[in-house]
């Protein structure tokens, strides 16, 4: 299998506190990789390091065969590494259409129609983002990350604040995109229904280190993961 993303020996400290402690991760092409763990485990820190948003970290990162360790977020984005944010990354007063067009222009790409179609945003194009529902805003955030059809999508809690119905719809969209568009996904999510329904592989972080890695059914039964995070009520 080909690794689309490889992080080697990634570390980041805040003062003397190691938020990320020598973590290595390899995500294969076509995978939906879940990244789970308790609050403060280092998940967002890892996403920040991989997307180029973090300062003062160490380690090496490869996107396919290319080392991207020293590249800024926008340079990584141009090479096909996109991310969404825990808080949506959208501008409230601007219409859905304009936000997508601005994102496409910044990337020098066209092909917005397929993104609009995939995320079912067609009826919302002329609405300012502040007027659409929170669930629709999360889909717009995902659409912005998908402009230019990135090869790798880093998602930081895309289902946060969504209803069960919206979360399941999002899960369906993601599964579909991976298969139709050949996008690889690394997803941080606390909603275990979403994680266990879409991920083929899961990495568990705890206290800045990898606690376990494996297939969903093995992770569900892993005693250390149950003790540190899932409890006895794993879905
Ligand atoms: N800018 C910062 N300054 C100081 N400490 C930070 C900073 N950012 C994160 N941390 C600390 O680093 C640790 C890891 O944080 P991180 O946000 O990566 O965890 P997480 O697994 O994403 O948690 P959550 O599930 O709550 O989002 C936490 O203890 C957090 O308090």
From TrEMBL:
Q: Known Gene3D superfamilies for this protein?
A: P-loop containing nucleotide triphosphate hydrolases
Organism (species):
Futiania mangrovi
SMART domains per UniProt: AAA (SM00382)
Which keywords does the record carry? ATP-binding, Nucleotide-binding, Transport
What is any one of the record's Gene Ontology cellular component terms?
plasma membrane
InterPro entries reported in the protein's UniProt record: AAA+_ATPase, ABC_AA/LPS_Transport, ABC_transporter-like_ATP-bd, ABC_transporter-like_CS, BCA_ABC_TP_C, P-loop_NTPase
A single Gene Ontology MF term assigned here is: ATP binding
According to UniProt, the name of this protein is ABC transporter ATP-binding protein
GO process annotations (BP): D-alanine transmembrane transport; L-alanine transport; L-isoleucine import across plasma membrane; L-valine import across plasma membrane
């Amino acid at each position: 299998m080909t690794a689309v993303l490889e992080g080697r020996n990634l570390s980041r400290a805040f003062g003397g506190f190691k938020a990320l402690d020598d973590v290595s991760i390899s995500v294969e092409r076509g995978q939906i990789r879940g990244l789970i763990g308790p609050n403060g485990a280092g998940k967002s820190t890892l996403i920040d390091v991989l997307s180029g948003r973090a300062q003062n970290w160490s380690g090496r990162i490869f996107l396919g065969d290319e080392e991207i360790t020293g590249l800024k977020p926008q340079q990584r984005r141009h090479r096909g590494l996109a991310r969404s944010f825990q808080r949506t990354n959208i501008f409230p007063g601007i219409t859905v259409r304009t936000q997508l067009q601005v994102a496409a222009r910044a990337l020098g790409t066209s092909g917005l129609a397929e993104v609009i179609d995939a995320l079912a945003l067609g009826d919302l194009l002329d609405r300012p983002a502040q007027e659409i529902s929170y669930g629709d805003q999360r889909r717009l955030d995902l659409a912005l990350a998908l402009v230019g059809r990135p090869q790798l999508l880093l998602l930081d809690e895309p289902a946060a604040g969504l209803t069960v119905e919206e979360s399941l719809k999002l899960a369906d969209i993601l599964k579909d995109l991976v298969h139709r568009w050949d996008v690889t996904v690394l997803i941080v999510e606390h909603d275990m229904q979403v994680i266990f329904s879409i991920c083929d592989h899961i990495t568990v972080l705890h206290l800045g280190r990898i606690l376990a890695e494996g297939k969903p059914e093995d992770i569900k039964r892993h005693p250390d993961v149950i003790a540190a995070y899932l409890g006895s009520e794993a879905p």
